[in-house]
Input
Amino acid sequence: MELKSRLLRAATARPGVLLAVRPGATRERLFVEAELVRRGWPCAAGPASANLLVCVGEATTAEDDWAERLWLGIPAPKARVTASAVERAVEALDRGRADLLSGAHQHHVGRHEQTDGDLHRGHHEHQESPDPAPESGRHTHDDHNSHGSEHTNGSSAGAHQHGAHEGHASHEGHNGHAAHGMHGDHDMGVVAGLPMAARADDRDGLRLDRLHVPLGPVLADWPAGLVLRLELQGDVVQQAAVERIAAPITARPPFWNEPWLRASAGERVARGDAARRLCAAHLDSLGRFLAVAGWDDAAAEARHVRDRALAGVAATELTSSVVPLIRRIRRSRTLRWLTAGLGVLPSEHAHHLGVTGPALVADGDVHGRVLVWLDQIERSAGDCDAPGTLGAADVTGPRGRTDGANLPSQALLDVLPGLLEGAEFACARLIVASLDPDLDEFTWAAPPVRGPADD
Amino acid sequence: MNLELFLLLASALFCVGLFGALTQQSIVMLMMGLELMLGGVILAAASAWRYIAPAAAEGQVLVVVAITAMALEMATGFAVVTALFRSREIDMTDMAAELKE
Amino acid sequence: MTDPAPLWAVLALPAVLAGAAWAVASFDAVLGAGARAAWPGREALRLLVQQPRRTRAADVPLTRLGSTLLPVAAVLAAVVLPLGFRSVSDLPEGIVWFNAMEALAWAAVWLTGWGPNSTLSLIGGYRFLAQGLAYELPHMLAITTAALGAESLRVGDVVDAQAGLWFAVWMPAAFGIYLLSALAMSFWGPFDQPAGRDVAGGAAAELSGVDRIVFLSGRWLLFVVAAAFSVPLFLGGGHGPLLPGWAWTLLKTAVVLAFLVWARRRIPTVRMERYVELAWVVLTPLAVAQALVVAVVVLNR
Amino acid sequence: MNDVAFGLLAALAVVSGVMVFRFDSMARATFSLLTSLLCVGGEMLLLGLDYLGIVTVLMMTIEMAIMAVFMVMFMMNPAGLMPMTMTHNKKGAAVICGIAFVLLAAGVLLAPWPARQGKPPADPTMDLGMSLMGPQMLTMMVLGMALFATIVATVVLATRRGRYDRFGDDLRAPQASDPVRGGVGR
Output
C-alpha cells in the first residue's frame, strides 16, 4: 500500500490538465495557463491523456452537458476542479492535485458491462458507471467515446442559442467513423447507438459517406465556447455550421475589448493600456495559431511574451522581447509555404460580411492575417506606455470595431462556414485560428448600449 | 518440408481466394480474393524454383512477375472502382453487371 | 566485414534502444522552455497508473495490435543496425529488411487510428498514410542510392564501402532526403501531423494508460532507429580515427539525433497536401538524378 | 525448426485467408489478408528467397494499408456494425472451389515431379539480378512498361480533372486552380 501511494504521488506530480474554458473567462484562462507553465503541468490535447479536468469560468446554472461528457471520457485516476475566479485558481489547482492523490473522485469508479452497442465487438467496459448526474441519464452513460471535440449536441437545450439545431438527433455527436451508412441520403439508421453516415457528393465528385462531427467546445488551442458542426468526408470539411455553447450573461466586459468598451462608455482609459491590451490580444491569438500550426516553440514564446505584456513590463523591454519573435515568424519561409493560399478572404467579401478587424486589413489568406497581427503587435508594443487617453471615437479593438451594429466576432463567425468548405481538417483548424473569434463578446450585456447579441 | 507440402499450401490459398473472388459482391472484396489467389501463385512459383530448378533464375523471375501482377491488379482495380463510383455510385459487381442493360 | 553478434545481443537490443529513446526524449524535453530532463519519465509513470479506457463500438484488438506493432517494428528494423561493425543480424538484404519493417508502421498507425472508432483518431490514421505515400518514394530511392554506392544490400558492406569517403559527402541529396524521410516515417518533429495536437493527438487521441505509453514509446524508438540508420548508410558507420567503432557510431548517431531534435524547434508542422507535391515533383526526380550520378561513378570505378 | 516454422506459417496463412471472408469489419478483413500474405512472405524466406520474401512483406504491407482506405471510402458499413452479407452464389462457389482444391491436390500429390536439378546459388538475389539484367531483360522491360502504362491508365481513370481544368482553356493560368493548393505551385 505504501509503495502504491508513493507511486501514485510520483505519477500525479505532473497531472495532465485538460482545460475546459467557458466563454467569458479569458482572464481566468490566461492566469491558469501561466500557472500551469510555472508548475510544468502538461496540457492534455484530449481527455484520454488527462488526469485533471479544470473548468475555467463560472458554471451555468445547470451543469453543462459537455463538461459532464468530458469528465466521463477521462480515465481514472482523475479529478475535477473549477477555477471560477483568478483569486481561486491556484487553490483550485492545488485541490485538484490533492484530490488526485486521495482519490476523492474515484468512489464512483466501477466496472460495468454495457448492454447496448455490443453487436459482435464484445464488451465495452465502462469505468465510471453509476452516473454522477443521474438526471442526464442516457448521455452520461453511453458516452464513453467522449472526446472533447464531440460533445455538444442537441440534448442540452440551453446550449443552443441558435435554436435551429434543436432537431438534431441527440446522438449525432458520437458519430464515430466506423458508423458508416447505407446507400442513399435519407437512410440515417442507428447502429450500436451510433448513427450511420449518409452519402453526399464531395469536393472531388465522388459520393462518399459524410460524417457529422461537432468540433469543440473543448479542444486544445481552440476559441473557448465555439462549436463547429462539421460534415466531414475523410478529413475534408464539406460543410460547417457555427454554434456557441451557453454561457451566463455578465456585466463584466469581455477581457480583450475592455479598454475600448470602457472608453466608449465614457470612462478614462489610458492609450498605453489599450495598446498593451491590443498587443497581448494579438499575442494570444498568435500563440494559439502557432500551436495549431505545430510550431510549439514559437507558440510558447508568444504566450510568454503575452504574459509579460499583461504583467505590465515597460514598453522598451516589451519591444525588445517582441521584436525577435516577430522577426523569426515573419522570416519563416516554411510558415509562409504552409499557410499561403489558405482561407483566402478578399476584403470586399469581408467588408460585406461586416468584418472590421485584422481580417479585413489583411485582404488575403491565413498568412496575410498573421502578418497583420505581427505588424499590430510590433506597433502596439511600442505604444504600451504612451501618454494620453483613449478617445470615445477610438473604437477599433483587437478583432474590429466595438461600436458596430454587429459584434466583431459575430462577423468572424459569419465568415467561417464559407472559408471552411472544402478545406482539409488541418487547414480548417488553421483558418479558425487565424480568425480567432472571441466568444467572450457574446457573454457581455452592456446595460446602456446594447443587449446580449444573440444573433 | 518438401515440394508437395508447399504446393498444397499454395493450392489451399488459391482456392480460398477463388472462393472469395466468386462469392463477394463488393469489388474491393473481390480484389482481396484475387490477391489471395496470386499469393498462392507466388508461393507455388517459389517452391517450384527451390525444389525443381534452383540453379535457373527463371523461377525467381516468375515470382517477380507475379508480384508485379499483384500491384497492377490492385492499382487498376482501385482506379476502376473510383471511376465506376464517380459515374454511377457503384461498388458492387452485380450493379456493374446491370450497367450493360 | 561485420562480425556476428552473440546471442545476448538479441535481448540487449530493445533495452539499448529504449535507453537511447529515453535519452533523446529527455534531451528534447530539456530544450523546451523551463522543462526538465526528468519529465519523460514522469510522464511515463503518470500514464502507467492510468486505467485503460474504451470508446464506443471500438475495435479493441485492432487498436492493441496497432499500438504494439509500432515498437515491435522499430526493434525489428534495428536488427540490421550495426553498432560499430556489429549488428544483431547482418542480413544479406539488410537495407530491404529495414525498409520492410519500417513500412509496418503504416499498418500500425492506421490500425491505431481506426480502432477506437473516433473521428479524430481516424484522421490521424489517414494522415499517416498520406504521409507514407509522400515520403516513401524518395526514401526508397535514397536508400537504394546508398546500396548502389556500395554495390550491396548488406548494411555491413555499405559501411565498409565508406572506409574512405562517407556517402553523405558525395550523395548529399540522398542523405538529405533520407533525413527528411526518417522524420516522416517516425511521424515526429515537423512531420508529426498524424499525431498532431490539432486533432487532439491524432492516432493516439483515444489511447490512454499503457496503450499510450507503448504507442508513443514506439514512436520514439522508430525515430531513434530511423535516425541511427543514417549513420551506417551515409555517415561511415563506425569508421573514424582514434576512437573504436562503437564509439564513433554512438557519437555520430548522437549528433544526427541532436540536429534533428534541434531543427524540430525551428519549423512548424508540415502538412501533407503541401509536402506530397514537393516530394513527388522535386524530391523524387532529385533522388533519381542522385542515383544516376552514383550509378555512373560506380560503373567507372 | 524449419518444419515447425513452415507448419505455423502455413496454418496461419490459411486460417487468416479464410477469415478475410468471414469478418464483418473491413479493417479486420484487410489486415487478415495482410497476415496471410505476410505468411506467404515468411514461407518464401524459408525457401531461401530472402530478397523476394522481404519485398513481398514490404509491398503487401503498403498495399494493404492503402487498400484499407479504399475500403473505408467505398464500402458500405466498413466497421461491420450492422452485420450483413454481401455475397452471392455461395454454394456454387464452395463446390467449385472444393473441386478445384481436390483436383489441384490430386495433381500435386500424383504428378511425377522431376528430381531437383542443380543447387541453389549462394546468393539467389545476385542470381535474380543478373538474370533480370541479362537473359530476362525483355521480361524486366515489359514489366516496366506495364507498370508505367498502369500508372497512366489509373490516373486517367480515377481523376476527373485535366490540365485544362487546372490551367484554364489556354493553359496560361499562372497558378493551377486546384481544390487544395499543392506545395510547388504546379
User: Anything to note?
Assistant: The longest helix of chain A spans residues 271-292.
